[in-house]
């Protein structure tokens, strides 16, 4: 089967995601959702230009640059998610006939599990940064496209929620209790911050839509 990447069509991505193939899976779909959220935020920035928005232009310019970086990150993390899954599947298929083989297999599984956790955690961090940018311009961005800024925030939050589930399921393969706790705590803190940024941004968007 053809390996899915960023250059495939939406149709290809949806068809393979809905097939029995394990990739692209949840982590890849989360990365794509994050990129779509960044794209909506970028569009809002690109339509918040000119003399009317001179007072917030530095914020808009900064947000736009961050969104372009975020989209690039999403592409990289989509590929990294597929690669980390392939590595994990390779690890669990390693031979375990002798004690030495069992030890090597366990070590390989642990390293693969760590990578499979690190990738969605990086996506969560990127979503947090993206939401910070969206929140920074929600008060004054072009009101005609303020709903799109809200959609961007919703997509980034959804991407982070999805990435969290990927983290959590891979934590089940991580036998180091202390490292497991550290990862769990990090993910929890990130989601609390993401949840706050999402709520603030969507509230501002809704207020501007309703004219309050």
Task: Outline the secondary-structure elements.
Elements (H helix, E strand, L loop, with lengths): L9 H8 L8 H21 L10 H36 L6 H39 L8 H26 L5 H34 L2
Helix pairs in contact: 2-3, 2-4, 2-5, 3-4, 4-5, 4-6, 5-6
Q: Tags for this entry?
A:
212 residues, mainly alpha
Overview of this structure, please?
The chain is mainly α and 212 residues long. Helix content is 77%, strand content 0%. Helix 2 (26-46) runs antiparallel to helix 5 (146-171).
Classification by helices and strands: mainly alpha
Shape: elongated
pLDDT < 50 stretches: none
> Helix and strand succession?
HHHHHH
* Largest beta-sheet details: none
Based on CA atoms alone, the radius of gyration comes out at: 20 Å
- Tell me the helix content: over 70%
Outline:
The protein is an all-alpha fold.
């Amino acid at each position: 089967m053809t390996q899915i990447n960023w250059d495939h069509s939406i149709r290809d991505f949806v068809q393979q995601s809905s097939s029995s193939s394990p990739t692209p899976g949840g982590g890849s779909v989360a990365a794509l959702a994050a990129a779509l959220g960044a794209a909506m935020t970028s569009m809002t920035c690109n339509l918040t230009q000119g003399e009317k928005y001179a007072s917030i232009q530095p914020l808009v310019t900064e947000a736009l640059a961050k969104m372009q970086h975020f989209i690039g990150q999403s592409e990289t993390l989509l590929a990294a998610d597929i690669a980390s899954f392939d590595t994990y599947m390779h690890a669990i298929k390693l031979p375990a006939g002798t004690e030495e083989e069992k030890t090597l297999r366990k070590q390989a599984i642990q390293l693969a599990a760590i990578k499979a956790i690190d990738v969605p955690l990086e996506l969560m961090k990127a979503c947090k940064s993206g939401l910070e940018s969206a929140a920074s311009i929600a008060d004054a961005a072009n009101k005609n496209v303020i709903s799109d800024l809200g959609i961007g925030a919703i997509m980034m939050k959804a991407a982070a929620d999805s990435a969290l589930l990927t983290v959590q399921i891979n934590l089940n393969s991580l036998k180091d209790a202390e490292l497991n706790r550290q990862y769990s705590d990090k993910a929890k803190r990130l989601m609390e911050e993401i949840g706050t940024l999402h709520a603030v941004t969507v509230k501002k968007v809704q207020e501007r839509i309703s004219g309050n």
